[in-house]
Amino acid sequence: MSRHPLRPAILPHRPTGSTRQVPSLREGRSLLLRAVRAGARGYIVKDVDTSSLIRAIRDVSRGESAFDARSASAMVRGLNQADTPSAHQLTSRGTEVLTLLARGMSNRDIGARLYISETTAKFHVGNILRKLGVSRRAEAVYEASTAGLI
To answer: 105 and 128 in contact (C-beta within 8 Å)?
Structure first.
């Protein structure tokens, strides 16, 4: 993956004192929270202007943090959502569906396996995405596996 200078998440200093940058693919809360949990001290959205990018890099190099208003807001919403009791509480059916998602099954396949309609399977998948605070099936599987749900 190539680095794009206008889309970095800024991680803490390496022992040598250099700053690591991880390119972001989107402004999703999930990605932002993962970057912060991995030690990021800054996060820059893709449409940041050059002067803001330079300021953010300088701030992090001085040991400060650098989050623009949108990223900070997304981070707060994500942290608040993660703190709610229902964020990772799945029903037994939800866990079953999530396990089948992890196997790469479609809604139709999940429905056939669980003897439910494709529409009901889609409903369960939507609930899982909402409870885990993600927007894609692959993100749900990743979040659930890192949280020990599957």
So the answer is: no
Give the span between the Cα atoms of 35 and 48, in whole angstroms: 18
Say if residue 57's pLDDT is above 70. yes
pLDDT tens-digit map of 86-135: 445 788 899 999 999 999 999 999 999 999 999 999 999 999 998 888 88
Between CA 48 and CA 66 the distance in angstroms is: 12
Q: How far is CA 28 from the centre of its chain?
A: 6
Name 56's bridge partners.
none
CA 40 remoteness from chain centre? 13
Q: pTM for the whole thing?
A: 0.46
Q: In what order do the strands lie in the sheet with 66-67?
A: 19-23, 8-13, 42-43, 66-67
3-state secondary structure of 143: helix
